[in-house]
Specification:
Helices cover 37% and strands 18% of the residues. By secondary structure, the chain is an alpha/beta fold. Strand 1, helix 1 and strand 2 form a beta-alpha-beta unit. Helix 1 packs across helix 7, helix 3 packs parallel to helix 5 and helix 4 runs parallel beside helix 5. It binds nicotinamide-adenine-dinucleotide and uridine-5'-diphosphate (UDP). The site of uridine-5'-diphosphate has 14 residues, from helix 6 and strand 9.
């Protein structure tokens, strides 16, 4: 059985990763400090003898007993609303936190997986974004606490690869959605669904011409799992996301239709440095791990809407 350490275990993606590895011949140690996570996301694992939970802020140095085959560093506030509310914690978790986890991985010669993001491309000047693109980031803007910390994390991860020969892999995750997102985390999917469910106006920031593509959580998990377990991918950086690109204005109409809501749309100011267009080139994931998203937006949204209906 492989032994896996997952930080951010009580979060949206981290909690699903715990399930995914537990379902696939692994013992999992999950760590979280609940800054944006929820115990409810992992409470079903309480009795699982292969799961251990440790409440810990990974920004502080800490020790763990035993060795790990895999360390997945997924702790970090990920919604713009969350990381703007916790700017210092966000900078720390993707600098001090990343170093702490890299050291733990290095001590037990574990494979290290860093949750990176499409945000390292900033407001991209090339489209779709390929892994070789260096990005267009405002280093002093409000979003820099997230973007620059993730860029630092990538740099630190690659130093451990070059200096210590540590087996590292970096998924650059594009917008992902699904059950266990927090209803109030401010991201567009939970915002629009929660508004549509109570027939409130959907809040479009700017004129809604900015684009995003939306990957369903189950698809993302397949990609992260494969990138984590397949041999010979040391040092690889890989985009993971959907290539079905929507204008936010049109995405609002999709949500209104799927929820069968009477909501209209209202326009609010565009947040500072909000990227105008975003869509991954996933050729590398297709060729190296044979990965591409399979879940239609229709099915993914149905499952997500049902989840939000049940918890609201
Ligand atoms: P989330 O906010 O739901 O989960 C993050 C988890 O990390 C939370 O449970 C939080 O409490 C925990 N955490 C934060 N700081 C911590 C610390 N110092 N010590 C211990 N735990 C801490 O976010 P998510 O959407 O699940 O994102 C998970 C990871 O994936 C993040 O690194 C994020 O940057 C990355 N990512 C997510 C997306 C997406 O669309 N969801 C896109 C790109 C990248
Ligand atoms: N957005 C919006 N209304 C909302 C929430 C978000 O128009 O209620 C827009 C936001 O400005 C951005 C896109 O939707 O252009 C995606 O936002 P999200 O916060 O989900 O993630 P981002 O891709 O910005 O990290």
């Amino acid at each position: 059985m492989r032994k896996v350490l997952i930080t951010g275990a009580a979060g949206f993606i981290g909690s699903h990763l715990c399930d995914k590895f537990l379902d696939n011949d692994s013992k999992v140690v999950g760590i979280d400090n609940f800054i944006t996570g929820d115990w409810g996301n992992i409470s079903h694992l309480q009795e699982n003898k292969n799961f251990q939970f440790i409440e810990q802020d990974v920004n502080n140095s800490f020790e763990l007993s035993g060795k790990f085959d895999l360390v997945l560093h997924f702790a970090c506030p990920a919604s713009p609303v969350d990381y703007l509310k916790h700017p210092i914690e966000t900078l720390k978790v993707d600098s001090l936190g990343t170093f702490n986890l890299l050291e733990i991985a290095n001590e037990s010669n574990s494979r290290f997986i860093l949750a990176s993001t499409s945000e390292i491309y900033g407001d991209p000047l090339i489209h779709p974004q390929i892994e070789e693109y260096w990005g267009n980031v405002n280093s002093v803007g409000i979003r820099s606490v997230y973007d620059e910390a993730k860029r630092f994390s990538e740099a630190a991860t690659m130093v451990f690869y070059r200096e210590y020969d540590l087996d590292v892999r970096i998924p650059r995750i594009f917008n992902t959605y699904g059950p266990r997102m927090q209803l109030g985390d401010g991201r567009v999917v939970p915002n629009f669904i929660s508004q549509a469910l109570v027939n409130e106006d959907l809040t479009i920031y700017g004129d809604g011409s900015q684009t995003r593509s939306f990957c369903y959580i189950e698809d993302l998990l397949e990609g992260i799992f494969d990138l984590s377990v397949i041999k010979g991918l040391d040092g690889e950086v890989m985009n993971l996301g959907s290539q079905e690109e929507y204008r936010i204005l049109d995405f609002a109409d999709v949500i209104i239709e799927k929820v069968e809501s009477k909501s209209k749309k209202k326009f609010l100011p565009l947040p500072e440095d909000d990227p105008k267009q975003r869509c991954p080139d996933i050729s590398k994931a297709q060729s190296l791990i044979g990965w591409e998203p399979k879940t239609s937006l229709e099915l993914g949204l149905k499952k997500t809407i049902d989840y939000f209906k049940n918890i609201s």
